[in-house]
Write a structure and sequence with these properties.
The complex is a heterodimer of chains A (300) and B (460). Chain A is built from 14 helices and nine strands. By secondary structure, chain A is of the alpha/beta class. In chain A, strands 2-5-8-1-9 form a five-stranded parallel beta sheet, with helices on both faces. In chain A, strands 3-4 form a two-stranded antiparallel ribbon. In chain A, β6 and β7 form a beta hairpin. The relative contact order of chain A is 0.12. Chain B has three domains: 86 residues; 98 residues, no CATH class; 200 residues, Rossmann fold (3-Layer(aba) Sandwich). Chain B has 17 helices and six strands. In chain B, strands 3-2-1-4-5-6 form a six-stranded mixed beta sheet. Classes of the chains: A alpha/beta (300), B alpha/beta (460). Chains A and B meet through α2, α9 and β9 of A and α2, α3 and α9 of B.
Chain lengths: 300, 460
């Protein structure tokens, strides 16, 4: 394992090789997390590639990705483990009258009756894995507190069984959209990585990587426009994924240039709120019209 | 210097750095500092970027902390390097060796700088910043004020973020320069000028704590909307999840007798399952009064926007603005979503300023009482936002007391820091007797207040 985590440059190269272009700090923090064995807390707006980072890391390291999607009301029965009650009942009935209480009790609280959930999976896996705890900010504080044991010591205490310790050392990523403040205790155990919308050149490289067939000048213009749209105050600014979608859409339409008409027709790929649509059409679409006309003419 | 002493030095430095971070409100404890040491063993210190990122990843664990970290980092290591330079007597040649650089071709310099900005190369920009300072420092007399000099040089170089179509095609400035790089370049120039100043005077300027106003509420109409929406979006979600914290603290739940009896039918009339009355969230009725005289306008409108965006958390909400007179603006907010449009509408329609434009609290209280007297009842909440400066008029705290007595809860939000309260013509203390007063000049304080406002009654 982990030949890829030997140096910052190696991590960056590894990520690039699987189609993820890391920013400056991304590779560094991933490298440090591997070295120190600490979880990474990744924060940032929606759609900047937080989840993708975990997937790319898993690919780079050639490890299995175990994903725990968080939501309100997630509890340990769904995240950690649960006893398989039906099987336990069947067992008790099958044993019949003959056996004593102690034996049955020892029996039915064995690993055989344990339903393991993602976190348990991650801890008990034979092979080293990458664990992704997605959108941790959606859960309750109680759940966060429960995670602490897993994150700092990579172990789970089950009252009936004792302690289950990790056999290998997983790489752990937690993502958050920053919709609520996470507890200090959780933050203390993690390295912190803030992912923001990439700079122009960086995003350009990302879009090129995913949609290489699109004309280079169109791609550049597309990224510039997306940057402009992000500068407006929108309910939901377009994410990187949406830039890529837009590039794909333009490719399908066979667009040679982004002028006002093309922009208006494909706008809904990157902007997804009614009020936002108006704002963008008003502010960016207008700028685009004459500029496209001027730029288009000498080329013909 | 022997290696052991050097490493001891850096350890002490890092602890010192951690202390400065803490002083600026970044909560980095011993655990974080230990992590920072562990991290520094893994990276090469010769890469300034890596060094900073690695420290940031372990010490600053939220976006706000990260911003503070950047500022403190720059300040700390800049000062550390400069004080070492003074101690060791290291001087740079450029300050007195201006003769060694013959005439710099200004046009060429402009072009190179613009190209470097386009590329965004940090080290190139730093070198060019020094060259620019040297070139222009000789032409004009420096004004001595660093900020002024920076802007002068920037203008002389013709560096602008807007496209400049009159320039020739191959000039990299033609399509405008990236704003971020421009800002960075200005910061570098500022840094170089500071360095030169320190060299001249051979002492460091006094260290100054970060300006608290960096984190204050939006004060200009330009940084408005985005800030409002950000705060509101976060507040909404936080309010939604916050119930869970208080759920554990309910000591006395009330038994719902009717539902318990019905449930007992299943068990032959024996009430085995106790049913409790559900706890309904408190949805207060709110009356907001906001001062919109020039001194506090933006804070008021900001606050009103936040409350209106949260209106579904309240049973009923009426908002008023006042300067000399009072005027209801509830429907303005129903109509307009745009922060700027709201401020304009208030300025245009509300008709609250008579002559002087100075707040007249006495009159406002009387008018408010006349308007809502019948509606006020113990479940109503009155919130006043204002600086409580009487401007030489009668504050009529007695009328305010009557209003406060009729309403269930009365809050006062003062957009001035507590330091200035009761100073000059501020009469907040005479109102504070009848209500709870809060400081409210950062988004954090505002958030705390809104939380307190929507908290269920027994948790309070």
């Amino acid at each position: 394992m982990a030949t890829a985590l030997d140096s910052v440059a190696a991590v960056a190269d590894g990520l690039r090789a699987v189609g993820y272009l890391p920013g400056e700090s991304t590779a560094l923090v991933a490298f440090l997390a591997g070295k120190l064995g600490k979880p990474i807390l990744v924060e940032g707006p929606a759609g900047v590639g937080k989840t993708e980072l975990a997937k790319a890391l898993a690919k780079t390291l050639d490890r299995r990705l175990v994903r725990l999607q968080c939501y309100e009301g997630l509890d340990e029965a769904k995240a950690l483990y649960e006893w398989n009650y039906r099987k336990q009942l069947l067992r008790i009935q099958a044993e019949g009258q003959g056996t004593g209480w102690d034996e049955v009790q020892d029996d039915i609280f064995g690993e055989e009756f344990l339903l393991s959930r993602p976190l348990m999976d991650a801890i008990t896996s034979e092979q080293p894995i990458v664990l992704l705890i997605d959108e941790i900010d959606k859960t309750d504080q109680e759940f966060e507190a429960m995670l602490l044991e897993v994150l700092s010591d990579f172990q789970i205490s089950i009252p009936e069984l004792g302690r289950v310790e990790a056999r290998t050392h997983p790489v752990v990523l937690l993502t958050s959209n920053n919709s609520r403040e996470l507890t200090e205790a959780l933050k203390r155990r993690c390295l912190y990585l803030w992912l923001d919308y990439p700079e122009l050149e960086h995003e350009l490289a990302i879009v090129r990587l995913h949609v290489p067939e699109l004309d280079a000048t169109v791609t550049r213009k597309l990224v510039e426009i997306v940057g402009m749209v992000r500068d407006l105050d929108l309910k939901k600014p377009p994410s990187i994924a949406e830039s890529i979608d837009w590039a794909r859409a333009l490719l399908l339409l066979g667009a040679q240039d982004i002028d006002a008409t093309v922009f208006r027709e494909t706008l809904s790929v990157i902007v997804k709120h009614r009020t936002d649509l108006d704002v963008v059409a008003e502010r960016v679409g207008v700028k685009l019209g004459p500029a496209a006309g001027l730029a288009g003419q000498p080329r013909i | 210097m022997p290696a052991s002493r050097a490493s001891e030095g850096i350890a002490a430095r890092l602890v010192e750095f951690g202390e400065q971070l803490r002083a600026e409100g970044v909560g980095s404890g011993t655990a974080e500092l230990l992590d920072a040491f562990a991290v520094l063993e893994q990276i090469s210190w010769t890469e300034p970027e890596d060094f900073r990122e690695a420290l940031a990843a372990t010490l600053a664990k939220s976006q706000e902390d990260r911003r503070t970290f950047e500022l403190v980092f720059e300040r700390f290591f800049f000062r550390a390097a400069e004080s070492a330079a003074i101690r060791e007597g290291v001087r740079e040649g450029a300050a007195d060796g201006s003769a060694e650089q013959p005439d710099v071709d200004l046009d060429e310099l402009r072009r190179q700088i613009a190209a470097a900005l386009q590329q965004g190369s940090e080290s190139l920009m730093r070198d060019l910043a020094r060259l620019a300072i040297a070139a222009f420092g000789r032409r004009h007399e420096g004004s001595g004020v660093i900020g002024v000099d920076v802007q002068r040089i920037r203008r002389a170089l013709g560096l602008r973020a807007e496209p400049q179509h009159e320039l020739p095609d191959d000039d990299p400035r033609r399509d405008g320069l990236p704003r971020e790089a421009l800002r960075r370049f200005e910061a570098l120039m500022r840094r170089e000028l500071e360095r030169a100043q320190i060299e001249r005077t051979e002492q460091l300027p006094p260290s100054r704590p970060l300006n608290d106003l960096d984190r204050a509420l939006p004060s200009g109409p330009l940084q408005d909307l985005a800030a409002v929406h950000r705060v509101v979006a976060q507040l909404k979600r936080r309010l939604k999840t916050q119930g869970q914290e208080t759920r554990g603290h309910q000591h006395h739940a009330h038994v719902d007798v009717r539902r318990t009896m019905r449930a007992s039918l299943q068990t032959g009339g024996v009430p085995v399952d106790l049913r409790y009355k559900p706890v309904r969230p408190r949805r207060p009725e709110i009356y907001v009064l906001c001062d919109v005289s020039t001194s506090v306008t933006s804070a008021s409108v900001f606050f009103l926007s936040v409350l209106h965006a949260l209106h579904d958390s309240f049973r009923k909400m009426r908002s008023f603005v006042f300067i000399e007179r009072i005027s209801e603006v509830t429907d303005v907010f129903d109509r307009e979503r745009d922060f700027r449009a709201v401020s304009e509408a208030i300025a245009r329609d509300a008709g609250v300023a008579d002559v002087s434009g100075y707040t007249d609290y006495g009159r406002v209280w009387s008018e408010f009482r006349a308007l809502v007297e019948d509606e006020l009842h113990p479940r109503a909440t009155v919130i006043v936002l204002g600086d409580a400066r009487k401007n030489g008029r009668d504050p009529r705290a007695d009328v305010f007391a009557q209003i406060a007595a009729r309403a269930g809860r009365t809050f006062w939000l003062n957009p001035e820091p507590r330091l200035y309260w009761n100073y000059g013509d501020s009469v907040i203390s005479s109102y504070e007797r009848h209500c709870q007063a809060f400081e409210c000049w950062t988004t954090g304080q505002l958030e705390d207040f809104v939380k307190a406002l929507t908290r269920p009654p027994h948790a309070a």
